[in-house]
Amino acid sequence: MQTFQVLIIGSGFGGQCAAINLLKAGIDDFRLLERRDFFGGTWCQNTYPGAAVDVPSPLYSLSFAPYHWTQMFAEQAELHRYTRHVVEHFGLRDKVELGANVERVEWDDTNRRWTVYTTDKGTFCAQFLINATGPLSQPVVPRFDGQERFQGKTFHTNNWDHHYDYRQKRVAIVGSGASAAQVIPAIAPDVGHLHVFQRTPHWVLPRADRRFGRFQRWLLGFKPAYKLLRWGIYWQFETRVIAFKYSKPAVHMVQRQALRFLKRQVPDAELRRKLTPDYTIGCKRVILSSTLYPTLARSNVTLHGREQGIASIDETGIVTLDGQHIDLDLIVWSTGYDATDGVISYPVTGKDGTRLKEVWAQYPRAYLGTALPDFPNLFIVTGPNTGIGHTSALFIIESQMNYILDCIRTVKTQGLRSIEVRHEAERTYTEMIHREMERTVWKSGGCHSWYQSKSGHVIAMFPGFSFSFHRLTRALKPADHILS
Hints:
Layout: E1 2-9, H1 13-24, E2 30-34, H2 42-45, H3 76-89, E3 96-98, E4 102-108, E5 113-118, E6 123-131, E7 153-156, E8 170-174, H4 178-187, E9 193-197, E10 204-205, H5 214-219, H6 223-238, H7 240-246, H8 248-265, H9 269-275, E11 287-288, H10 292-296, E12 301-304, E13 310-313, E14 317-320, E15 325-327, E16 330-333, E17 348-349, H11 356-359, E18 378-380, H12 393-413, E19 419-421, H13 423-437, H14 441-444, H15 466-472, E20 481-483
Parallel strand pairs: 1-2, 1-6, 2-3, 4-17, 6-18, 7-16, 8-9, 8-16, 9-12, 10-11
Antiparallel strand pairs: 4-5, 5-6, 13-14, 14-15, 19-20
Organism: Pseudomonas monachiensis
Keywords: Monooxygenase, Oxidoreductase
Protein name: Flavin-containing monooxygenase
């Protein structure tokens, strides 16, 4: 059994940010447990064609780790390089245990510590446990009759098979969200025919990408210039909350802009009808793409709407609801992740045998999206209601670190063993979150999205400005906690 002061589960940006903040606080007795055989999380795992970030790169980066980005919206390869840069710059390579797939974690009431059981790397113990597995780590593949009979190739965008040659093949993309919107334009010119199965159309706005010239990249090497650009982007994006929550005229203005963009890029009226959402913009994730609509209008691309959806799958392809049989060589599942009910994928047992699965039976919830009653010394990075639809998730992660490190420092400096949020504090916070959520487009926009849990509660998103979340996490409130 290996024992550390802190264990971090996950090595993506959340895990890296936690590790670096621990080092800055003078805590080096920790390990990152990574289930895969490589370090880095989302941007090392998601290598599908066209993969790129949809937040400007200078903002989608750690505030203490600036980078010489080559373009405004970095592609996967550059995000992978950035991840390696962060890992090497802060010396995290020796702090990770690869192939450590967590089976379950349990709180030891007697010794006041967490025990982490893994499939291949044995057992680990720690006083503090930080879950940083991320909300986009559990791919979802829907079930259809006959699915196992298909004789062609299938895989999820999260696990793209680069050994498979899709050129001149008959390919189906199942899904029409953010990943699909990147894959479709990337592969359509090379496939024989591409069938896109869209359950619900998404709102699309143009992607204002640009490559940085040599002088601009040189300029961004100066921290004041980098910080100025970063904060300029931040405040520009922060105004989007006004549309999502506070102003119907503002959201209608953006929606009209999206409709004009659709009409300009898709002249065919029938295709435009299939691509026009029947819910308010922002209710589902808005897609940024200047290439998706023209690709869907290509002669070798067919868009199948809800009425032409998948009825079943057989040995050679897909049977649609309207009776068509579509012969296929490849089916790509671009069907997203379990980002709400599956926030933590492994069993967690807390104080007095309390099971997280039972606590979250109705819907996932957490104080500041980070801490739970009856689960001492456990912190969840990007937990319930920490998602942010208008700006960088890394800003929220760094805000959570203020609270997490404050909790750990308080326990250490006071010579204590554990910290636990009070039931009433979590309940008050959760009630506030869902009361505020009623005013947002995510709740009232007329759609069902992955932002919502099975209960209908919006779990993925924080219902307000990101600086409001930062203010809430800025300092520990001792009255909200049990210290022992």
